[in-house]
Input
Amino acid sequence: MSLQHYLVISSILFTLGIFAVLTRKNAISILMGIELILNSCNLNFVAFSRFVKPSENIVGAGAYVLDGQIIAIFGIVLAAAEAAVFLAIILAIYREFGSIRPDEVDTLKG
Amino acid sequence: MVVPLISIILLAPLAAFAIFALFGLAKRSFPRQDILSTAAMLVALGCSLYLLTEVVPKPDPYTVEWISLGSVTFSMGFYLDSVTVIMLIVVTLVSSLVHIFSIGYMHGDPRYPRFFAFLSLFSFSMLFLVVSDNLLGIYIGWELVGLCSYLLIGFWFEKDSAANACKKAFLTTRVGDVGMFIGMMMLFKKFETLSLHGTNGIFTLIADPAKFTGDTSDIVWLSGAGVLIFCGAVGKSAQVPLHTWLPDAMEGPTPVSALIHAATMVAAGVYLTARMFPILTPSSSLVIAYVGGITAIVAATIAIVRFDIKRVLAYSTVSQLGFMMLALGAGSYVAGLFHLTTHAFFKALLFLGSGSVIHAFHAMHAHHDEEHAEGNQHEHDDHGLVHEHGSEIPPDQDMRNMGGLRRKMPWTFGTMLIATLSISGVPFIFSGFWSKDKILAGVLGRAMEWNSVHHYILFAVALVAAGITAFYMFRLIFMTFFGEPRNQEMHNMAHESPWVMTVPLVILAILSFPVVNTIWFNKDYIKPPDQHHVQAPQHADISPNNKTGKVDFGFSIFGISEAHAAEDESENADDAHHGHGPAHTIAMVLSIIVAGLGILLSWLFYHKRRFSAESVATTFRPVYTLFWNKYYFDEFYNGVLVALTVWKSRLFAKFDLSIIDGIVNGVATVTRAVFAAFIGFFDNRVIDGIVNRVAKVIWSVGGRIRRIQTGAIQTYLFVVLGGIVLIILIFRVL
Output
């Protein structure tokens, strides 16, 4: 398993996420797409952290660097918080408009 | 010691007024304004009396610089000599008594406190005028006096007649004041100062040949200034032809009349003339003497036929003021001022006495209205009588309603009788005799001294006026206090006045005896000022030997030949100056005779009824009509001056309405039709067109562009994604 495999998987996930965000007619599905995008990013962080060794001049000989993993954990926490905020917004939108279809919420239409 | 005393004298009445004003700002009145004002006046009186002992009659002005304009400095200050002190005493004394009298007379008036405040201000103004050492200060006091007389004459401004009278007084005196101001400016032009006394004062400069050469043009200038300043006195002291305001001023409350006639307003004119004595030239003196003489006789003849008790007294005041002016014009400085003081006392007494009579009838008057139905018949008769003569006399002032009051009002009667004896010139024990005699003697003395026809004529006029004075004053006494009551109903209601009113009467009656006026005979105390330009030329410049050059000094509009007078002078030079000896005796005898004659005639006409006044009036119908109509002065002023002014105003109004307004309206029309129309068109079409077109273009463009904003969030996201891809591609290519 090399870095390329991870990057391919990550790209597929990212593309699926974008596709979901742009095309789904349900806000919950859009949230799901966003989660996919976030997770593809996390996968990239971890993969790069695992396969790319930083220069010894910077970190010292034989040292392990876990930066990517830590950022991935941050990303998961972020996704959870973002999901909570997003769902609250969706609830508010539902109360206001009686729907959660994003194409029906177009008050800012010019 | 002198300056603080004068300050107290001035500030006490002013403070009384200021307190009224301060309380007035708080929309309340000081609870006992009457007591306050009276006390202030009494303090001033006390200080004045103290000054009498304090002052040595060698005066210096006490001055401070007031305004500096370039090289000219106006100073303000006090000048105190014996005359000033006597005037202070007269003013404060009469004013105090009037204050006390008013406590009774004005009792219950709705504007009671205001009356006393005005009296205080009036007294302050007069005192300020009296002590000022320069013309500017005198002028300020002068105008303040005018203002206060306006306020007080119009005190009962609800009455139309009072409102008109106060306007008339203000405007008439203003006519004279304009002349006075021009005269002041003429003096200022010549001497560059308005101070009168002291080293740089006008009176010093006038005697200095370096400053004032005394040639003809200077003398003409000085005469003009003197006559013009005298114009102010003509207005204030009610001399013919500006006397008409004074009888109308009777509309004010009677104490005000007493104050105006005795101590303040009219005395100001005489005092000013006396103050300006040193600058009077022979010709301006003669003008003054003639105005005074004419006033004396005209006013006396008018007074004969009046029935309103206050009008009789008013015209008598005018007449007596004429006497004073005559004296000053004839060079009898002391006589004029002496008569001013004696007159102040007995005229104040007469007015307060008449006020007492009116007050007695006043209470009745209120009662009368209640019992209107009962008294209807009688009132009808009165009014018929009054209307017959075409004049509105208030019934409580009409002497035809009086008579027999001497038993009802013994105090009033007694004191008024003393005043009448005094004004009539009953010899030896009354002050009026001495002062009037001094005037007559002065005029006759000047006539004999200068051998001047003018002064002989004036002497005769004054003598006749003195006789008439005795006649009409006793007519007043007989009609008011003697005989049978003509109006029984009014008579029944009449009563003696309360003590606050009778006490001032008694005090004034005491002052009408010569005892207290003897100060005027003290030649050490009172020295008349020099009239350099009356006497010096006679002694020095003009003599029979000097026929060249300055003989023409005596510029005289009436053509007195000064040279002639001087020749005469040289003949009896020894007794010329003090030589009133024979003149004095002649004048005294003649004045006693005319006074006796006047009283006798009055007694025969109005007490014994030996002759009927009505039949005499019928016999001399034209003369009577002339007197009754007051020589048509008012008619003349109304018919000519007022009508002219109104006509002129109408003319100007028409001019304004047609021509000025026409121009303005024409310009407006042209502007509107031509300029405004063009500019309006330009604005509407061009400017608005540009603005609207720009707006329309922007509007339509915006309408198209806004379609981009779909409001759908996924569209935006798509665009964002496309943008990112585009940027990446661009970076890849680069």
